[in-house]
Structures are given as structure tokens and as C-alpha cells.
Amino acid sequence: MFKKILIANRGEIALRVICACKDLGIKTVAIYSEADRNALHVRFADEAICVGPPRAADSYLNVPAVVSAAEITNVDAIHPGYGFLSENANFAEVCESSHIKFIGPRPETIRLMGEKERAREAAKAVGLPVLPGSDGMLKDEADAIAVAARVGYPVMIKASAGGGGRGMRIVRRADELPGLFSAAQAEAASSFGCGDLYLEKLVDRPRHIEFQVLGDEHGRVIHLSERECSVQRRHQKLVEESPATPVSPQLRERMGTIITAAMAKIGYTNAGTIEFLMNPDGELYFIEMNTRLQVEHPVTEMVTGVDMVKAQIRIASGDHLADIIPVPIEGNGVLPRGHAIECRINAENPETFTPSAGQITGLNLPGGIGVRVDSAVYSEAVVPPYYDSLIAKLITYGHDRTEAIARMRRALDMFIVQGVDTSVALHRKILAEPDFVAGRLNTAFMDRFMPAPRQRPKKQTP
């Protein structure tokens, strides 16, 4: 087992990793930017070292500074959390060359799954269902037109690199394609330094279903059931839950068998998530794989009883899954018991979605049976403007979905943050929607809450 781990992240996920390390008796090193000098992950780690000024590119994304901090503090391993360097294959390689264990998949796996069209081809090769689309990268606009005509409109143009909805465009008619192709290419090149695009058939108003997997370094892969993440705004998840209401035990078993066999074929290790779109007929199609811990991992922890972060650390230290998983593995997975929901609480205006930085002047975090809060905020803490707006994850658990929803409503009513705007009020609206309560979800669910587009004033004729 490792003696000391550096956490290459900040905020609630850094604190979450510190908690897991304390449970395992492992010393921790926090890194921080000058803006996070008073952050809780700095306070609760055994050691802390500043890696640069506030801007993420100069601190949390500064690979030489992060690796230097690891070498100076003589750590055995680095946990990247999510975001920042968690899916950076070059960073994982630098860790290896510095004889520091990267707690995550192998660099070659991160690289394969990070290039979305290569990941799509790899998924097809190992038996995962994929949507009809281009074979490899689109050569140019003419190639895109030919592929779209073959698979049929509507289609989705996607950037091969990156994520978060950037470099993606929906094309519903042939006459829209040239302009949208150029826009997607330009955005992808600007955001990721790579303008490569591919194309696939669009599933209109799908559900977003993902399966959590764990693979040890001895060739075994299991799944920890599935989550639904259909409540999204601009491809950013807002509410997640497990299990997914449209996934039957039979579908879970069938997909679990396909997924674990596929991941074993590519030699997948550590935690990962395979994401699918579900069409109205209940068919699942692979869209991408995240080779890291997910923001929404707590809902899986609540319904399976598996501490995902501890599992990551123990896998990286060489333990077998059979010794890591504290609950029965049934077939090739762990089945869910009860129901869990997570609301991402962001520091932003709930009407306009604009970020809200500043000092927290008052705070009450909810509690009670079935309620969990993963957060690194405290009264008088400063929410800096430099990073993601997520300030807390509110998770509730119930014997069934109805109880989990009731507990989430109660917890949202008790969640008070003063000094900055938060999305708590928005989540109250979501939880009150009859379609949400009934489980009638798709990725267009949030359209009803989006602010109306501003109308340009008409020019007055003289």
C-alpha cells in the first residue's frame, strides 16, 4: 500500500480523496494555487505546497510544477481526481517516468479513449453497440456531406478531442451542413488545438445512461451498475441518479456482460465510465468513455456500498478486485440496492446560469438520514472566479426512488448559502416537475428552464 499520495486537484474532490486516504492510513499532500491558499483541502492534508498563481494553466494544469511538488514531498502516487489532468495521457506518462504511480488507467488507454473517433472504432471492435456514422475522421466538408446522406438526417458532427459540448453541432438538413461543419471545426481547433471531426446519426431526445466499471491490474473487470444523467444543460450534467429507471434487470445483466468483456479485451484498469445514448425503443449506443472518476460517483457508492476512491487507490497499489469489493459480486457486477440522486450545486445565478464568485457570508449544509454533502465550502470561504462553478454535491439515498426524491426536496430546503448565488432554487424546480417525478426524462428536459433568448429591438422606420 502507498505511504503518501499527492492530490492533483482542488475543491470537493480533493477533500474526498483526502478522506479516502485517511481511511486507509495514507499521508496526503495537497497542491494549491495562490487563490486557494485558505481552502479546506489545504487545511486537512498532511502537507501542502503552492504550485502557482490563480489561473489553472499556471497551477493545477502546470505539469512540471505538479510533478516537482510530488518529487519534493517524496510521494508514492498521484490521484488526479476529475477534470484538470485526470485524462491527460502525457501527464500519466510523466508520472510513470518519474517512478510515481498514476492512480488511473494506463497512458495508452487514456489516449485511446480520449480521441473520440478512435474510441468509437475501438468500441465497435470489442462489441459495444455504436451509432451509424463516419468510418474514421471526416476528410473535409464534401466527405461530411456524403456520410450524412448515407446515414440519413438528422446527424451530429463531433470533435474528436475534448468534451463539454464544444465542437459539436446538430445538423437537421443538408443545406445546414456546410456552415455548421465550419463552425464545429473552428470551435474544436480553438478549444482543443485539434479540428478533427467525425459524424454519427443523431438520436433525438435520448436518455443519457452510463455504466461504471472497475478493472484491476490482474485482468479482471466488473461493473457497478448504471446511472442516468439525462438532466443536462448544454451537455453539462445537473442531476444524476442510480439505478436508471429505464434499465431493467435483464438489460443491466446483458449490458454488464458486454461491457466487462469489452473492457477486459482492451486491458482496462482502474475506474472508468462508459456512456451511452438510449433511444425511445430502449436501445443503447456507445458515445464515449471517461477514463477517470466521475463527478457523480457518489450515487454509485450509495447504491452499491463500494467506496470508489478507496477502490481506485487499492487497484493502483496492486490489490485484486476480489479483495477490494466489500459486497457480493453477482456474476460480473455489483447490483444496486435502493436509489440515490445527486444534485450538482453550482455557484451561479439560477435564472441566467452566469457564474457567481465571491465570499460566502452564511452557510447551512443539510443533514439527516439518507443525506450526504460532498463539499469544500465553509462560512467566509471565497468562491474564486478562476475555476469550475461546482461548490457542492448533494446526494440523497432512499429505499426507492420516491423516498430519495422526498429526501432531496427536504435537503434542498435546508441548503442555505448566502453571499453568492447558487443553483439550489433551480434544483427545487427540477425536483417538483411532474415529468421528473414520473421518471420521464431525456436530454431535452432542461429546455423548459432555459432563459428565453434576447430579442433584438426592431429598427424604427423613419
What topology does this entry show?
Elements: E1 4-7, H1 11-24, E2 27-33, H2 40-44, E3 47-52, H3 63-72, E4 77-79, H4 89-97, E5 101-102, H5 107-114, H6 116-125, H7 141-151, E6 155-159, E7 169-171, H8 177-192, E8 197-201, E9 207-215, E10 221-233, E11 236-242, H9 249-265, E12 270-278, E13 284-290, H10 297-304, H11 308-316, H12 321-324, E14 339-346, E15 358-359, E16 362-364, E17 371-375, E18 382-383, E19 390-398, H13 401-414, E20 416-418, H14 424-432, H15 434-438
What does this protein structure show overall?
With 462 residues, the protein is of the alpha+beta class. It is 32% helix and 24% strand. Strands 13-12-9-10-11-14-19-17 form an 8-stranded antiparallel sheet, sandwiched between helices. Helix 1 (11-24) links the parallel strand 1 (4-7) and strand 2. The longest helix is centred in the middle third of the chain and has 17 residues, at 249-265.
β content, as a range? 15-25%
Number of domains: 3
Task: Catalogue the unreliable spans.
Answer: none
Strand order of the largest sheet: 13-12-9-10-11-14-19-17
Total helical segments:
15
Classify the fold: give the CATH topology of the largest domain. D-amino Acid Aminotransferase, Chain A, domain 1
Most strands sheet:
8 strands, antiparallel
CATH architecture of the largest domain: 2-Layer Sandwich
Fraction of helical residues: 25-40%
Structural class: alpha+beta
Any idea of the CATH class of the largest domain?
Alpha Beta
* Morphology: globular
CATH superfamily of the largest domain: ATP-grasp fold, B domain
Beta strand count: 20
Terminus-to-terminus distance: 80 Å
What is the CA-atom radius of gyration, in angstroms?
Answer: 22 Å
Mean pLDDT: 95
